[in-house]
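pinging the channel bc i need a second pair of eyes. not urgent but kinda urgent?? the chain im working w is below, pasted from the shared doc
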Amino acid sequence: MDFWSVYAWPTILIVLSILAIVVPIILSVAYLTLAERKIMGAMQLRQGPMVVGPFGLLQPIADGVKLMAKETIVPSGANRVVFIVAPMLTFFLALVAWAVIPFDDGWVLADINVGILYLFAISSLGVYGIVMAGWASNSRYAFLGGLRSAAQMVSYEVSIGFIIITVLLCVGSLNLSDIVRAQEDLWFFIPLFPMFVIFFVSTVAETNRLPFDLPEGESELAGGFMVEYSAMTYALFFLGEYANMILMSGMTTVLFLGGWLPPFDFAPFTWIPGVVWFALKVAACLFVFIWIRATFPRYRYDQLMRLGWKVFLPLSLLWIVVTAGALIAFDWLPE
């Protein structure tokens, strides 16, 4: 057997496929920070970054160079290994989840039949990085931030799981490409609109974004689980948060907004590549993330827990029953 044809070329193709996904995501994360500052500046009647490069377009690169040049300070009482691994784990998990997300018809790294379970499992592991950071920092503020994050993410993952079950009932498949194809006639955000709203709000809470940024809580926890981090370890948490925002927007697009499908099945919409439609929908979701941050004040912690357990959980459970009943009553069960 020829070594190159059997082992080398398949390996090279896989590596190139991974780079084709990871590099654009890292660039998107970098420029999402700039987009957030620009959009929030416009909403607050100011310009945002304007100094570094034309219109401030080189600001993310300048920020990255600055953070890489700084010294990483590890507290004397911290567990050094766990302290360093925690931000790396958070950023790594935000990247590996993209392996099963289809960008276009056939454009997916691993088109596995249980893609939605893989995605849910990876997103659920994100809490470990924050809990590890809170414990390893040997700080009361960081530890409280880690505990808050664990409770918050577990609370909202429950409702996310039930909403995903509702979508799966309508599709009859765990494959993400099949979920997108099932929306050729009607995107799921129309018949499942209440679940779409609850899912999106839950993803905001899952990513610890305002108004649900209780684990960081600058006013009472002085930065929460990130209080002892500096330089690139802090930057990895920062990048992980924004990468998770893009991931959750991708999940929303696949589950409710038709993935790569155009909004109307006629020219010129069908001439635009599916990957462009996917990117535009993800960008629209990210804009709403930023819009929410610029608009709403932070929730109190008891309000956060009440919303998750007393509002979202009963509603998502009820919608499963309603959806299953409607599918059986009107003989809409997927084949």
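so Residues 71-329 form one domain. and Residues 1 and 7 are 10 Å apart (CA to CA). — does that match what u expected or am i reading it wrong
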